[in-house]
Amino acid sequence: MEGTITGLERLAFELSEEQKLAAEMAREFATRRIAPGAAKRDQSGVFPSEELREAAGLGLLAMRVPVPEGGAGLDTVGYALCMEAIAEACASVAVVLASSNLSAKILSDYGTPAQKTRWLTPYVRGEAGPLSFALSEPGCGSDASALTTSARRDGDGFVLDGSKMWTTGASHAHVHLVFARSDGPGKRGISLFAVPRDTPGLTLGKDEDKMGQRASGTAPLSLEACRIPADHLIGRAGGGYGIALSALAPGRAGIAALSIGLGEAALGAGRAYADERRAFGKRLTEFQNTQFVLADCRTELDAAWLLTLRAAKLVDLGDRAVAESSMAKLFASEAAGRVVDRMLQVHGGYGYSREFLVERLYRDIRVTRIYEGTSEVQRLVVARELAGPPA
User: In terms of domains, do 301 and 315 share one?
Assistant: First the structure.
């Protein structure tokens, strides 16, 4: 009789040795270094600066950046596996890594050699804090084409005016990647600029006092007559929207994986509690209702895994994976939310107490249905892809 297949191999999704090793490394680091302080960071809101510096030494700050540029050189599948492992330990650290890795890949793909030397290299080494991806504004989130922050050409540079909201890691970032309208209305007028944190005219607001993922250093940015040199333009003028689009599929696969990590953490905590807790003379796991709840959770998380790995694999094959990445992000965030909710119910009143992990997971999971494109936007994307191009 053949042995039982365990771990990710049960998904019948072929993983390379490099991907497996990366996932194992991320999980070991997350378990040893990130998880022990997660509850305290959640209570205090203290940013995980030291943990991120240590993560840099493992390549976790630049997972998809090529090795010659100091990164780990992982593909999108490997990146998703690492994100899931880190999120199981701490969603705040995971979302900072998600935002920073997104920005690092953009600098790697579109930055000039001088820009990489100035901003990417010290970041990859863990010497300069996280990178921030400043796209959302007070009046627009998922609709990037509606942004109003402006970049006016002035002599040998640009002057930026506007504001950004919900910028992950902004309070500790050494440089912000800021999307601004540089030439007229519409998508073609958007450009991307690197704005160092000490630039005159750039003001950092206080950290948002959020319900969950409280240690991620999320803060608003205000730009008033913020002058930057012309060589701070990333890519070509008017190419910012295309750059943002290029980051969507891997970004959404990463957030799907983050959501799965939270769901897996909740399922593990719920199973352990149900196996110890007794009611009416039986362990909770002896009741059929509990068994069915656990079965539903496992089924939904496995389905989320498959959608996420498919999207990541398609990206690695060169596909735009527009619908597939939106499906993965939509289903994983919604399914993980249901899993966490069920596991809180399994805990009963204890699940409502901050002494139990599932209470933090319940707060952390909620925002995954909002950032990186809301669930409603993901449905719109999938529907438009189904409809095909207009006649």
Answer: yes
Tell me how far apart the alpha carbons of residues 8 and 17 are, in angstroms, rounded to a whole number: 13
Q: What is the mean pLDDT of residues 334-357?
A: 98
- Paired residues of 161 in beta bridges: 150
Residues 118 and 143 grouped into a single domain: no
Distance CA 234, CA 131 (A): 14
Residues 268 and 227 in one domain: no
Would you place residue 389 in the very low, low, confident or very high pLDDT band (cuts 50, 70, 90)? confident
297 with 230, same domain: the answer is: no
Instruction: Please determine, for residue 136, whether its predicted confidence score (pLDDT) is greater than 90.
Output: yes
Residues 6+ apart with CB under 8 A from 198: none
Contact 163, 182 (CB under 8 A): no
Residues 19/7, Cβ–Cβ less than 8 Å: no
Active site includes 334? no
Q: Are residues 323 and 213 in the same domain?
A: no
pLDDT in tens, 212-221: 999 999 999 9
The model's pLDDT over 215-257, given as tens digits with 9 standing for 90+, comes to: 999 999 999 999 999 999 999 999 999 999 999 999 999 999 9
Local structure of residue 82 (DSSP, 8 states): H
Structure tokens belonging to residue 178? 């800021």
350 Cβ neighbours under 8 A, 6+ residues apart: 273, 356
Q: Which pLDDT band, with edges at 50, 70 and 90, does 355 fall under?
A: very high
Domain that holds residue 176: 132-240
Q: Considering 9, 28, 372, 376, which one is annotated as catalytic? A: 372
**CB-CB neighbours of 287 under 10 Å:** 14
We report the CATH number of the domain holding residue 252 as 1.20.140.10
Buried b (16+ CB within 10 A) or exposed e, 21-41: ebbebbbebbeebbbebbeeb
For residues 102 and 177, membership in a common domain is answered with no
Average pLDDT value for residue range 268-275 = 98
Domain count, the chain: 3
Domain boundary among 102, 130, 158: 130
As a whole number of angstroms, the distance between CA 252 and CA 286 comes to 38
Alpha helices in 162-216 (DSSP H): none
Identify whether residues 211 and 286 lie together within a single domain. Answer: no
Q: Is the pLDDT of residue 7 over 90?
A: no
